[in-house]
Design goal:
The complex is a heterodimer of chains A (about 300) and B (about 375). Chain A is an alpha/beta fold and about 300 residues long. In chain A, helix 3 packs across helix 5. By secondary structure, chain B is α/β, with parallel strands linked by helices. In chain B, helix 9 runs antiparallel to helix 13. Chain B starts with a helix and ends with a helix. In chain B, about 45% of the residues are buried. The chains are: A alpha/beta (about 300), B alpha/beta (about 375). At the A-B interface, helix 3, helix 4, helix 6, helix 7 and helix 8 of A face helix 7, helix 9, helix 10, helix 11 and helix 12 of B.
Chain lengths: ~300, ~375
């Protein structure tokens, strides 16, 4: 199997709140620095990536925007994906359909259609021969995918549609995309988890579900790991100091230290639980102590990934 | 204000929030606290952490509330005068039961449940959890004698999903779009009307005809049931808008979570939904006050060896960065919301996974203003 950044399409998923967008963009930054023309695609109109890069960036949907040399982002809206698809696939008829409100309402209300259209656009971005007129190909497409449960649903959607529609263009398109996703030379899946009980559980479930669909989980990224600042042998010393000292500031600092040590220990137990199941595919990212995650912090994370990606 | 005051006179408490902010734990702590104050409370949750589920006696999916044994609660630090009930929602089963309930006969219900479009709809599609959660809430409200129902909404990327997703499925089920180009024929079944043919020609070309056939069969099976879906949706909407309902947003003090809390508050106001307040978890309170960071190391000099003191000071510096971040974000939140509607819970040392842990969270949620100040002072000094 090729190294992760040698693939062309990488999905980043994980439970809500674990820092998927941050990891996706840090990975994109790393890929761009290696000279890959990279795009980070956000689904479900989150528009977080641009916000991470610049507070003031004008947020625009469905346009491929260059954040810096070789690094692009796009926020994929299913409705716009449909209009584009119809225009390319069915010419004037498609255009007429795309602008029919009745048809739009019907298509958008069809279960799973939004997901299919979004993943269809992702697939298009990853093609060397882009159907979007005049668009240059990307070396790597990173998808900031929805939260774990829906993330698997997203990966499964093309196959589901192919099965439901059986024949016809949707079935054909669905099958093509499903084959692309199943091709581990082409497509990779990364799960991001914070080292806490629920995110770890979800990641383990994800690994099982992917295996059931015969998809590979390439990498698990443990995000926001506290530093191990204190040895267990030092804890008694800290507790003793807390009992002796009267200074309110010293007491606060000691409490903060004990509290972080407890959390760090819990985190490590959860990380180990994860490691037991996905041995060899685990990468750690440090907790970023910053008031705001911006380019400087993303650089730190990209650097950490650089050293540890398999 | 505390949670007891927020929920005064309320019968339904909907806890919304994006993933990873401690929504399930907060919902359980709210329910426990209200039960402690004498109410008969049910908490409906979707996917609790295993240990928390065990702590509440939720070993399996049952889809009906079950009383948390008083013995379990008595072992905790809180005296519970009322009753705490809990249930873990099974979205698929709830959807099936909904069909059973409104289908004209069991045969039709069976056919619908076996239909390919329905199977897809009731499991894989985003929104089905949200829809079934609300359906269950409505059912519990109608059929049980609880003083308060606490709903822990399904995990999603953002809190607004809970408000939007059910509408997407509902409008599909009601067949609003499809009705426009279907016409009724005999036997209550519907076939595609002539006027829709050009449109369908295009649809067929793009989608493949069998999808249309499946959908037609599906809506044929639903028949007049689509009206029931509309009616139910309207009733549920009424429940959510009632002044005995309270929407509580669970959040953290991180930037995205606060942005979302602000949007959510605006959205509830625009939609005329009853907003009760925001519970902010994992807050890093400012422990430094008006002192200088470099004083920390000096203050430790007498009690700890130099290198260890340096690491404690470094840890404190990092903690303070987060406290500064949280204070800034909370000030943004306060500028948008009535600050009395804001309840802060500090970052705790461990995940909450038992009744003791819930009681710990509960202290912050139900404390009076004076008690809360004392709790924070305890943290600081």
């Amino acid at each position: 199997m090729p190294a992760l950044l040698d693939k062309r399409l990488v999905f980043v998923t994980g439970k809500g709140g674990v820092g998927k967008s941050t990891v996706a963009i840090a990975l994109g930054l790393l890929a761009a620095r290696r000279g890959l023309r990279t795009i980070v695609a956000e689904l479900a109109s989150q528009e977080r990536v641009q916000g991470l890069f610049s507070e003031t960036a004008e947020r625009e949907q469905f346009r491929e925007m260059e954040l810096e040399q070789g690094l692009f982002t796009i926020s994929i809206d299913p409705q716009q994906a449909m209009e584009e698809y119809l225009k390319v696939k069915a010419g004037t008829l498609g255009q007429a359909l795309g602008s029919s409100r009745l048809f739009q309402a019907f298509a958008m209300a069809t279960p799973g259609m939004r997901e299919l259209l979004s993943i269809g656009k992702v697939w298009e971005l990853a093609q060397l021969d882009r159907r979007t007129r005049g668009a240059a190909p990307y070396d790597l497409v990173i998808v900031d995918a929805p939260a774990t449960g829906h993330g698997v649903g997203l990966l499964r959607t093309p196959k589901t549609f192919a099965d439901i529609a059986r024949v016809g263009p949707i079935a054909h398109q669905g099958r093509t995309i499903a084959d692309t996703i199943a091709d581990s030379e082409f497509t990779g899946v990364i799960a991001v988890a914070t080292p806490e009980e629920m995110p770890v559980n979800e990641t383990l479930t994800l690994a099982d579900e992917l295996a059931r669909d015969e998809l590979t989980l390439d990498l698990v990224i443990v995000n926001a790991l506290y530093p191990a600042r204190f040895e267990s042998s030092e804890i008694d010393e800290l507790i003793g100091a807390l009992e002796r000292t009267r200074s309110p500031l010293a007491r606060s600092a000691l409490r903060a230290a004990l509290s972080e040590h407890a959390r760090a220990a819990t985190q490590r137990a959860q990380r180990d639980r994860l490691r037991e199941h996905v041995d060899g595919r685990l990468v750690e990212l440090p907790y970023v102590f910053a008031e705001h995650v911006g380019v400087a912090e993303l650089e730190v994370l990209a650097g950490a990934l650089e050293g540890s990606l398999p | 204000m505390n949670v007891a005051e927020m929920l005064e006179g309320k019968r339904v408490c909907v806890c919304c929030g994006s993933g990873g902010v401690g929504k399930t734990t907060t919902s359980a702590a709210v329910a426990l606290g209200m039960a402690a104050r004498g109410a008969k409370v049910a908490v409906v949750t979707i996917d609790p952490a295993k240990r928390l589920a065990n702590a509440l006696g939720l070993e399996q999916l049952e889809n009906e509330p079950r009383r948390v044994s008083p013995d379990r609660l008595a072992a905790g630090p809180l005296e519970v005068d009322g009753e705490l009930w809990a249930m873990m929602l099974d979205p698929k089963r709830t959807f099936d039961e909904l069909i059973d309930r409104i289908a004209p006969d069991p045969g039709r219900a069976q056919e619908i449940k076996a239909n390919r479009v329905y199977r897809e709809l009731s499991t894989a599609v985003s929104g089905s959890q949200e829809l079934t959660a609300i359906a269950k809430l409505y059912e519990l409200d109608q059929e049980h004698e609880f003083d308060l129902l606490v709903l822990d909404t399904p995990p999603s990327r953002n809190a607004l999903e809970f408000l939007d997703a059910p509408n997407r499925i509902n409008s599909f089920l009601e067949g609003r779009a499809l009705k426009a180009f279907m016409k009724p024929t005999g036997f209550g079944f519907r076939t595609l009307g002539r006027g829709a043919l050009p449109l369908l020609g295009g649809l067929r070309r793009i989608t493949g005809i069998d999808l249309i056939t499946d959908l037609t069969v599906f809506f044929g099976l639903l028949g007049d049931m689509t009206n029931d879906f509309s009616q139910r949706a309207a009733q549920v909407e009424q429940l959510l808008r009632a002044d005995t309902t309270a929407f509580v947003l669970v959040s953290s003090a991180a930037r995205e979570a606060v942005d979302e809390a602000i949007w959510f508050g605006e959205r509830l106001a625009n939609d005329g939904l009853p907003f009760a307040g925001v519970i902010v978890n994992r807050v890093h309170h400012d422990l430094l006050g008006d002192r200088e960071p470099r004083e920390v190391r000096r203050s430790l000099a007498k009690t700890l060896p130099g290198p260890l003191a340096a690491r404690v000071a470094e840890n404190f510096r990092d903690y303070h960065v987060l406290a500064t971040r949280d204070a800034y974000n909370l000030s943004r939140l306060e500028a948008q919301l009535d600050s009395r509607r804001l309840l802060l819970v500090p970052q705790l040392d461990d995940d909450v996974h038992d009744v003791d842990g819930l009681a710990r969270v509960h202290r912050y949620l139900f404390a009076s203003a004076a008690e809360r100040e004392r709790l924070i002072e305890d943290l600081v000094a």
